[in-house]
Amino acid sequence: MEGEGIRPEAFIPGKLTGLAGKNAGARSRTFRQVGLGFLLGRTPLKRVTLTNLNSLESLKAQFNPNQYREQLAVNYERNDIRGLPHQPLDYNNTSNHQIFMDFYADSGMQVGAVPIASIFNRPKIDEFKNFLMALCYPPAQGSGVIANAGPPRCLLNWPNALVMHVAVTSLSFNNQRFDWKDSSITAYVARVSFEEVRDQRLTSEEVRSSGTVRPGIEAPSQSFLRNLLGSRAL
Fold first, then answer.
1. pLDDT digit string (tens) for 186-204?
2. d(C-alpha 151, C-alpha 227), whole Å
3. What string of DSSP letters covers 123-180?
4. SS3 assignment for 61-98
5. Measured between alpha carbons, how far is 48 from 79 in angstroms, rounded to an integer?
6. Are 105 and 125 contacting, i.e. CB atoms less than 8 angstroms apart?
7. Domains in the chain, start-ordered, CATH in brackets?
8. For residues 163 and 151, what is the distance between their CA atoms, to the nearest angstrom?
9. Looking at residue 45, what is its pLDDT?
10. What is the pLDDT of residues 25-55, one digit of tens each?
11. Distance (Å, rounded) from C-alpha 32 to C-alpha 19?
12. Is the pTM of this model over 0.90?
């Protein structure tokens, strides 16, 4: 799977499998201490943040993907020259940087009797789902008038790993669990394909220096967004 989302077992304090030997109990206790400290916010976690560059709404993923895939293609014209034992390559372009991620969302995880969502003060998982889907449709201006030719661009920000402007080119959901009372979705995996969007030329020297943390792109601060959007809640 591309960028398989982190499963909840990784965050449940004290839940370990495969512990064996005389140190198993100590390892389990250590995990419970570290795990509970993480869940209570004592260990900072830099989560993936997505910002809609049209509305400037910003949401964090509930969990970071435990892996993701990147893809590039370098496109050349292959010239056929009679009698030459090879094909000279003429550079055309480099494809847009593609990123494939899976985001796992679960509203039912708990630490004891306390829902994880209340510990982290995170939005409901359907808000993140709707946020992703909104990146697939053009925005409206006024009474249903399409303002731009395409869906909003998005700032993909995973500190120290990925900072770039992207478009969502593919989106699918694997809905995995439902509330038995009202049938609402309580767990899903969102599989997202991102493609970088650029207005300026990217050079070999810039990529060598900064990698996928694109120069000149900074994540807007929460105070900046609040000032720009007024009283709108993020």
1. 899 999 999 999 988 999 9
2. 24
3. PPHHHHHHHHHHTTS--EETTTEE-SSSPPPEEEEETTTEEEEEEEEEEEEEEEEE-T
4. CCCCECCCEEECCEEEEECCCCCCCCCCEEEEEECCCE
5. 43
6. yes
7. 46-229 (2.40.30.200)
8. 19
9. 67
10. 444 443 333 344 444 444 456 899 999 999 9
11. 13
12. no
Angle, CA of 148, 150 and 156, to the nearest 5°: 110
Torsion (CA) 118, 120, 124, 129 in degrees, nearest 10: -160
- Dihedral of CA atoms 172, 167, 132, 123 in degrees, nearest 10, equals 140
Whose tokens are 């789902």? That residue is 129
Copy the structure tokens of residue 178: 């439902």
Could you tell me the two tokens for 137?
Answer: 């449709």
| R_g (Cα) of the chain, nearest Å | 22
CA gap 173, 102 in Å, rounded: 9
Structural contact between residues 50 and 156, judged by C-beta atoms closer than 8 angstroms: yes
Q: Which of 136, 138, 196, 193 is nearest to 166 (CA)?
A: 196
State the pLDDT confidence band at 117, using cuts at 50, 70 and 90: low
Task: Measure the N-to-C terminal CA separation of the chain; round to a whole number of Å.
Answer: 31
Q: How many Cβ atoms from other residues are within 10 Å of residue 51's Cβ?
A: 21
Structure tokens belonging to residue 162: 């990925």
d(CA 101, CA 170): 11
